[in-house]
């Protein structure tokens, strides 16, 4: 069977707008849209530079299809490494919290890998919270809105086995250097980590020991350049840091373990 003219027209429009993978993207758009009108709308949104995942309304993450709404951070491939590390530390039936959850992709992927967990996710951005609810609630998880730990029910204090937190970690001065897709179509608060990129991470590290269960772990993604300072922030607050790297995914994760004593 040949490729239909509308498909070729879609490819041409995407190519002329500068999409390098025009054929692949056209295929995804055509198979996602429910009507020819929807195809046209999606193609134009992509042509003006929206991230493909926001145009489609979903992203593939850890082999799952995760809903992604306009303005919400698109889960990155490299962050699958953070999920893998979390899955290795979590146990069935344990308490998993995805703080700074965006679409909720990380918690959903951990829950899907483990089968059964008590899953909570939280974000400050109402658009992210709405999106995360669509991904997390069908799995029986809970999504909370608010500033870091203030969003969480106090009953979770001292009970979290695995705390994933892909905080914003781009230094303020470098946000302007990001690709336009991120800079223009993802919320600033999803990207900007303050002067050295570690402001949010330091706040998470400071409070995490009181929320983790004895023997629980905090996992944060960072960059090679920031990894020493990130590990230092965890260790300053009584967590024992370990660094994990994936060359394949160009990913760096700091894992902080809470001891079994009372946090200081
Ligand atoms: C880098 S994005 C990560 C999103 C998601 N975890 C992922 O990896 O796809 C950071 C997220 O942190 C959220 N955020 C930023 N500051 C926050 C705060 N003070 N409290 C809660 N969430 C915050 C942003 O809204 C954004 O969704």
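-> sequence recovered:
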């Amino acid at each position: 069977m040949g490729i239909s003219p509308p498909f070729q027209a879609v490819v041409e429009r995407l190519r002329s707008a500068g999409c390098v993978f025009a054929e692949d993207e056209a295929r995804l758009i055509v198979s996602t849209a429910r009507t020819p009108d929807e195809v046209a709308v999606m193609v134009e949104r992509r042509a003006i530079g929206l991230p493909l995942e926001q145009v489609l309304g979903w992203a593939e993450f850890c082999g799952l299809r995760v809903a992604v709404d306009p303005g919400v951070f698109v889960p990155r491939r490299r962050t699958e490494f953070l999920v893998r590390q979390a899955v290795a530390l979590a146990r069935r039936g344990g308490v998993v919290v995805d703080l700074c959850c965006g679409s909720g992709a990380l918690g959903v992927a951990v829950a899907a890998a483990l089968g059964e967990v008590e899953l909570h996710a939280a974000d400050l951005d109402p658009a992210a919270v709405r999106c995360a609810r669509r991904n997390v609630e069908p799995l029986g998880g809970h999504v909370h809105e608010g500033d870091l730990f203030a969003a969480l029910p106090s009953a979770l204090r001292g009970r979290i086995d695995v705390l994933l937190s892909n905080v914003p970690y781009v230094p303020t001065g470098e946000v302007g250097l990001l690709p336009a897709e991120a800079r223009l179509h993802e919320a600033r608060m999803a990207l900007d980590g303050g002067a050295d990129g570690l402001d949010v991470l330091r706040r998470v590290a400071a409070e995490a020991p009181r929320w983790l269960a004895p023997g629980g772990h905090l996992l944060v993604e960072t960059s090679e350049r920031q990894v020493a300072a990130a590990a230092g922030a965890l260790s300053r607050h009584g967590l024992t840091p370990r660094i994990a790297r994936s060359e394949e995914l160009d990913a760096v994760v700091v894992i902080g373990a809470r001891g079994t004593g009372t946090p200081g």
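The beta strands are 58-61, 64-67, 95-99, 118-123, 142-145, 160-165, 212-222, 240-246, 251-257.
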